[in-house]
Amino acid sequence: MAETVVAATDVTVRFGGLVAVDHVSLEVARGELLGIIGPNGAGKTTFFHALSGVVRPTSGRLVVAGDDLTGRPAHVFARHGVARTFQTPRVFRDMTAEANVRFGLEFAGRGRPAGRDAFADARSILDFLGIGAAAGVPAGELTPARQRLLEIGMALGARPRVLLLDEVAAGLTEAEVESTAALIRRVRDELGIAVVWIEHAVRVLMRFVERVVVLHQGRKLADGTPGAVAADRDVVEAYLGEAVI
Amino acid sequence: MSFWFELAASGLITGGIYAVVALGLNLQYGLMRIMNISHGEFLMLGAYATWLAYTVLGVNPLVFLPAVAALLFLAGLAVYAVCFRPLAAGAPSVEVFEARSLLVGFGLMFLVQNAAYLAWGADLRGYSFLAEPVELGGARFTENRLVVFAFAVAASLALLAVLRFTLVGKAVRAMMQSPTGAQLVGVDTATLHPVVFGAGLALAGVAGALLSMVYEVSPSMGEPYTVTALIVITLGGLGSAIGCLAGGLLLGLVEAFGMHFTNPSLKMLLSYGVFIGVLLARPRGLFAR
Amino acid sequence: MSPRRAIAATLAAAAAVATLPWLTSDFALSLALTCVMYAGLTVSWSMFSGVTNYLSLATAAFFGIGAYVTAWGLGTLPYALLVPTGGLVAAAFAALFGAAVLHLRGAYFAVITFGLGELVRHAITYFEKTYAHTVGRVIVDVPGSTAVFLTVLAVSAAAVVTALAVRASRFGLALAGIGSDEARAETLGVGARRTKVAGFALSAFFAGALGAAMAVRWTYIEPNSVFNPFIGFQTVLISMVGGAATIAGPLAASVVFSLLTEFLRLQFPYLFLMLLGALLIALVLYLPGGLASLAPAVRAWLARRAAGDARG
């Protein structure tokens, strides 16, 4: 049995009267490539907010690498190895791309092992992502697609145990989605970190991940291999005819 | 008995003015994120305009009230066009706009206040209007204070009615709740923003005109009212007009009773204490859920 | 310029300025003192507020607290000890207050810091009236003008050196990240709360120390003069004019402004303040990055001219 890097138990997030995440439990194993899908408003992003400490769950427990971090602030999650990207890229616009990656290295990633030489410093992380040429460019001047890559770089700088990716393929062309997916797979393969990937574009995701969790109206509807989940009647119904495969 | 009545009434009278001053500012901040720190300066202009009209032209201050509102409304349109429209166009984010508009507000404060010093000097000005005392419920008030209270409450209620029942009012309330949503259903911010900014200044001007009937007028009279308005907004909650009215009256009472039980020189200390206390404990206002 | 060289340059400049008491008239020295004081205040302000975009108007509060430390302590403690004490008291106050209010952003933070200054002013006024039965305090037994000048210079130079060191440090990077996107910085491991409180307190230390050092300049101090909100506004204004995100910008602007203030404020007090207001508005509208944002354009122009000269 592989070691568990993140364990969420019965996590519920409530905003006023609205239940965004409803008693969701999830264990992510080391080196796993996991996808989370679900229709709009299913609570995917809110669940990510809870997993990364950005939002404090109303109830439930969050354990990262054996430490109970329930209710702790986001920077504690980051220092325990939870790194993430945001749906709309949030880079430090006035800093250079290199400084953006160095930011993660200086704080969350400080004192944590690099894993491989290819991730030893900001420059090599940018090179790995294929945007080394833009190292000196202010992040705000990069194209949205490159800002998404840079965000992955910032998260890698934090030297995570688990990488949470929130719709990194949104707004990309077909070819760009393919290359991003390949990149994410390489990150997992070469660093052995767990990747949890939310995507609205289900088709690509299903091809790349090893396990899929379906959220619907805040609840976990299905959890299994892409093949098994795609055959699940409840899932097909939840998408109301949206082609899953 | 009549003593307590008099104390409470005098608190409510002051509070009524506070509500009018705060309503204007709250409208501006709630709708446009303009924390206009020079709000009190426009109150001061309203007071001077009324004083001038009375002493130079002999116009009855109450008759002149609509003119003050119109003058300040026009001033608001001008200030919005010169300062805040270009600022909104050039700011990359709401936070940046907020910080910059605050600085512009400070600039306006310096500009307007010192222009008033230059024009009218530092002397206290005043005039006597309806200064006869009357008996009411066993307590004695000067007529002008009662008139001021009546007009302050009337102005506040009128604004509440406008917000609640007219199309413009509904648009303003919609904008405060969801700017993008309101824009989607066709609220025209390009006209709405300057109009609301003008209305805010008009309210400040009306408050100043009312104050000039009771108190002396000076170039620095506005500043304390800006601070008071901020306190009232904090008490009542951002963007809440009804909270503003309640908060204003409440603060008037707190000041009246607080000064009675402690020490008049504690007035400002008390106000700031309440302000900071509420900001810390309930940043969304006393009446927020 | 590398941080090391910038610090060396600062120290060299401070050493040069330190010779002024022996070279100039009393009048020029008092002008220089105002310049140096505002240089220290603006640099320490932009060290925190300029970088994080938490617009603080509490400078007057910290300055006044420092001044009152001197007013109360002079005669008991030596001047040289009162200056850092004033700084520490202001920093401790800022840390306490900051821990309570630094979750507020935008106009709220600015307004509450302004309210803080007024609150402290009224509290001290009340305290002095009730318990010491006085409005202000006469300061006797003050150090000479040379000693005061050198002390203020030392504090201001320390502020500049600290600002340079902070900017080059991890702490400075954390502050910049908070200014750019606070929640993002948190998810990358920055403890935003502690960082902000520390930055706010550090900035307050210098304002407090300057207040403590300057208090002896006035023979009579009262809350209305040392907690003058004008000090806070002027500090913000100068930093904005110079470019709040830089160090050299506010430094240069404080010299220009102090001179203007000294000459114009006495001659045309109202007109001067009107001008100041108009300038602030124009600046925010048309040059929000401050004069420092013109630097690249000027440098490019100079380079073009130099290239032209070489060719011609």
Structural account:
The complex is a heterotrimer of chains A (245), B (289) and C (312). By secondary structure, chain A is of the alpha/beta class. Chain A folds into 2 domains: 1-81 and 162-168 and 193-245, Rossmann fold (3-Layer(aba) Sandwich); 87-159, no CATH class. Helices cover 34% and strands 25% of the residues of chain A. In chain A, α3 (97-106) packs across α4 (122-129) and α3 (97-106) runs parallel beside α5. Chain A starts with a strand and ends in a 7-residue tail after the last helix. In chain A, 49% of the residues are buried. Chain B is globular. Chain B is mainly α and 289 residues long. In chain B, α1 runs antiparallel to α8 and α2 runs parallel beside α4. Helix content of chain B is 78%, strand content 3%. A two-stranded antiparallel ribbon of chain B has the order 1-2. Chain C has one domain (3-311). The longest helix of chain C has 27 residues, at 26-52. In chain C, strands 1-2 form a two-stranded antiparallel ribbon. Chain C has helices at 3-17, 20-23, 26-52, 59-73, 79-101, 106-132, 145-167, 170-187, 192-214, 223-226, 229-242, 248-267, 269-286, 295-311, and strands at 137-138, 220-221. By secondary structure, chain C is an all-alpha fold. The chains are: A alpha/beta (245), B mainly alpha (289), C mainly alpha (312). The B-C interface holds B 29, 33, 35, 37, 83, 86-87, 90, 95-96, 98-104, 106-115, 117-118, 227, 230, 263, 265-266, 268-269, 272-273, 275-276, 279-280, 283 and C 53, 55, 100-101, 104-108, 110-112, 115-116, 118-119, 122-123, 125-126, 129, 233, 236-237, 240, 269-271, 273-274, 276-281, 284-285, 288.
Strand order of the largest sheet of chain A: 6-7-8-3-9-10
Most extensive interface, residues per chain? B-C, 43 and 39 residues
Q: Mean of the pLDDT scores of chain A?
A: 87
Content-based structural category of chain B = mainly alpha
Strand content of chain A: 25-35%
The number of helical runs of chain A is 9
- The number of distinct structural domains of chain A comes to 2
Radius of gyration of chain A (Å): 17 Å
Tally of strands of chain B? 2
Number of domains of chain B: 1
